[in-house]
Amino acid sequence: MKNYILTLERQLMRRSRHDMEQLLADDFYEIGTSGKIYTKQIELDALTNEALANELPEVLNFRIHELSDTLIQAIYDTVEFSGRRSHRSSLWRKTDDAWQLFFHQGTKF
């Protein structure tokens, strides 16, 4: 399950409209590293036409906590090419045999 959730997290990092529409729950919200709140619609509106290919951050210390059969928390760190480092936490919810992200928070360190 850990590798599957990591794969989903990496899909979202590529910022493909198709992936984001499917993987972000309708009630998704994020507390960004700036402290600003983002919703699914805000994220979709901010997308460019092309997904990111080679600019993905490095993911370190990835781990999950299975909170229930339908709820998983992922915790990890990222290092971007700029050198910015962030602690990250995501909550994934399983509905109709599909996992969707409904909460994410990033904190710079």
Topology:
Blueprint lengths: L1 H12 L3 H7 E8 L5 E3 H6 L12 E11 L2 E9 L5 E11 L2 E11 L1
Parallel strand pairs: 1-6
Antiparallel strand pairs: 1-2, 3-4, 4-5, 5-6
How does this structure look, described?
The protein is an alpha+beta fold. It has a single domain, classed as Nuclear Transport Factor 2, Chain: A (Roll), CATH 3.10.450. It contains 3 helices and 6 strands, in the order H-H-E-E-H-E-E-E-E. Strand 3 (58-68) and strand 4 (71-79) form a beta hairpin. It is globular.
In short:
This protein is α+β, with helices and mostly antiparallel strands and 109 residues long.
Amino-to-carboxy terminus distance: 27 Å
Overall shape: it is: globular
Strand content: over 45%
In the CATH hierarchy, the third-tier topology is known as Nuclear Transport Factor 2, Chain: A
Major sheet characteristics: 6 strands, mixed
Number of E-type strands: 6
CATH arch. level architecture = Roll
Question: Which structural category do the helix and sheet elements fall into?
Answer: alpha+beta
In percent, how helical is the residue content? 10-25%
